[in-house]
Amino acid sequence: MGFFLEFGCMLKIGITGGIGSGKSTVAKIFALLGVPVYYADDAAKTIMQTDALLIQQVKAHFGDHMYDSNNVLDRAALGKIVFNDKDKLELLNSLVHPATIRHSDEWADRQTAPYVLKEAALLFESGSFQFLDKCIGVSAPQPLRILRVMRRDNISRNDVLARMYKQIDDNIKMKLCDYVIRNDEQEMVIPQVLALHKTLLQLAAEA
Ligand SMILES: Nc1ncnc2c1ncn2[C@@H]1O[C@H](COP(=O)(O)OP(=O)(O)OP(=O)(O)O)[C@@H](O)[C@H]1O
């Protein structure tokens, strides 16, 4: 079948994994195959600058001074509040996640492919998996994930561990996924993506 749908039902597929698992890298391989990809973590940063309702909610809960007169967010000030206070982080997430879901749904409505991917670190934590047809998990052993992030972000092992421990355990996450791609040093990742792409096209054709 041709890749683009003239009519029919588009599938929404999530792709997630722990920090350093390679979910963005794997999502980019799907993108090379022509699959539209929504990068939720990047989008969230943009939405915080552009979504009028979200800006209003952040100001109401965290103070008007979180934004300057041009509505530019003071990330450092907001970060200082939420990274030292779990409840405040949950509050911020409870504002940002629905805005991201709203935005990604609007984005998906504009696509014409048989399936689209939503890449997000917190697919399960944010509740956005409920609005998706299937979820892909990207997994890699923890020591490899730590090394990758240390190299990519030029940060210490302890800094990576601090970020890692804020996320749901990867083994639990993978059990919640419908498909798992192993992005380690044993398995080749591209053949796995090609095989899954074929499966998802088939699924979309039958939907
Ligand atoms: N199969 C691979 N071989 C070599 N390097 C890889 C592989 N997969 C990912 N990487 C590298 O590991 C690093 C982490 O990958 P990536 O940014 O895709 O992970 P992520 O799961 O999206 O991480 P985060 O949750 O922090 O956004 C990147 O520098 C990427 O280039």
Number of helices: 9
- CATH classification class of the largest domain: Alpha Beta
Could you tell me the CATH topology label of the largest domain.
Rossmann fold
Query: How much of the sequence is in beta strands?
Result: 5-15%
Task: Report Rg.
Answer: 18 Å
Largest sheet: 5 strands, parallel
Helix proportion: 40-55%
Tell me the strand order in the biggest sheet. 2-3-1-4-5
Query: Structural class of the helix and strand makeup?
Result: alpha/beta
What binds here, in terms of ligands, is: adenosine-5'-triphosphate
Give the N-terminus to C-terminus distance in angstroms: 14 Å
Which helices and strands appear, and what pairs or packs with what?
Blueprint lengths: L10 E6 L6 H10 L4 E3 H11 L1 H11 L12 H8 L3 H24 L5 E5 L14 E6 L2 H12 L3 H8 L5 H7 L2 E4 L6 H18 L1
Parallel strand pairs: 1-3, 1-4, 2-3, 4-5
Helix pairs in contact: 2-5, 3-5, 6-7
Bound molecules: adenosine-5'-triphosphate.
Adenosine-5'-triphosphate binds next to α1 and α6.
GO cellular component, one term: cytoplasm
Protein name: Dephospho-CoA kinase
Catalytic activity: 3'-dephospho-CoA + ATP = ADP + CoA + H(+)
Describe the structure in your own words.
With 207 residues, the chain is α/β, with parallel strands linked by helices. It folds into 2 domains: 12-36 and 113-202, Rossmann fold, CATH 3.40.50.300; 42-110, no CATH class. Helix content is 53%, strand content 12%. It has helices at 23-32, 40-50, 52-62, 75-82, 86-109, 142-153, 157-164, 170-176, 189-206; strands spanning 11-16, 37-39, 115-119, 134-139, 179-182. It has a 5-stranded parallel sheet, sandwiched between helices. It starts with 10 loop residues before the first strand and ends with a helix. Mean pLDDT is 91; it is low at 1-8. Adenosine-5'-triphosphate (ATP) binds at residues 17, 19-25, 121, 148-149, 152, 183, 189.
